[in-house]
């Protein structure tokens, strides 16, 4: 258990479905992230939230809709996805504003998404 | 945009052999971080280097940050089967915020026992 919990761990959905991924962090961090991990590609930053305000949208298609109701919870709402969106979606949290300016990520176990 | 390249992409060694992965950024980084992802797992933070030319050790692992803060390396001495996994470097560009970590594509290490 990393302190960052993601549900569901596995999700299979059709292209017309609507589903959501959930992330909860128990570390008291002030920032949360969504990353996408596809086979043979680097980890791709999708969204960043600081104190529940979105500060980064890395040109993500609108079929991915994030929601951050508070600093501990993060959702990724999915609708009309494509098969190429199949990937491991990783949530992470961090505590920003340290003396060294460091930003170390704690990742959740991920949600493995398959789009049929 | 900034790119972070890692070589090699794959490395297979006999248990007990050494292993090195190299990380090169197209831009100067404010710091470099290393993560390890076990098969079927998620990335786990290993270490962070901040200063130019910095070297840090964790038991059999040695991490270096280049003088120009654009490259880094991870060296494992006498690999063990527990070292299996994918090693990622990541760093935020100096001119951008610390939260815009750009990851390399990783080096996948497999070990023959």
Notes on the structure:
Chain A is mainly β and 116 residues long. Chain A has no helices and eleven strands. Chain A has strands spanning 4-7, 10-13, 18-25, 31-37, 44-50, 53-57, 64-70, 73-79, 87-94, 106-107, 111-115. In chain A, strands 2, 4, 5, 6, 9, 10 and 11 form a seven-stranded mixed beta sheet that branches. Chain A has a four-stranded antiparallel beta sheet with strand order 1-3-8-7, with no helix packed on it. Chain B contains no helices and eleven strands. The mean pLDDT of chain B is 94. In chain B, β7 (61-65) and β8 (71-76) form a beta hairpin. Chain A binds chain B through residues 2, 31, 33, 40-43, 45, 48, 50, 55-56, 90, 94, 96, 100-110, and chain B through 4, 30-31, 33, 35, 41-45, 48, 50, 88, 90, 92, 98-106.
Task: Provide the descriptors you would attach to this structure in a database record.
heterodimer; A: 116 residues; mainly beta; 7-stranded mixed sheet; 11 strands; globular; B: 113 residues; 6-stranded mixed sheet; 5-stranded antiparallel sheet
Can you give me a brief rundown of this structure?
The complex is a heterodimer of chains A (116) and B (113). With 116 residues, chain A is an all-beta fold.
Looking at how many chains there are and whether they match, the oligomeric state comes to heterodimer
Number of strands of chain B: 11
Q: Based on DSSP secondary structure assignment, what is the total number of beta strands of chain A?
A: 11
Question: What string gives the helices and strands of chain A in order?
Answer: EEEEEEEEEEE
Radius of gyration of chain B: 13 Å
Q: How would a textbook summarize the main sheet of chain B?
A: 6 strands, mixed
**Shape summary of chain B:** globular
Q: Using the alpha-carbon principal axes, give the shape of chain A.
A: globular
Helix content of chain B: under 10%
Largest interface: A-B, 26 and 24 residues
pLDDT averaged over residues of chain A: 91
Which regions of chain B have little confidence, pLDDT < 50, spanning 5+ residues? none
From the N-terminal CA to the C-terminal CA of chain A, the straight-line distance is 30 Å
Q: Approximately how much helix is present in the residues of chain A?
A: under 10%
Could you name the ranges of chain A where pLDDT drops below 50 across 5 or more consecutive residues?
A: none
In percent terms, what proportion of residues of chain A is strand? over 45%
Number of continuous helical runs of chain B: 0
Computed structural class of chain B: mainly beta
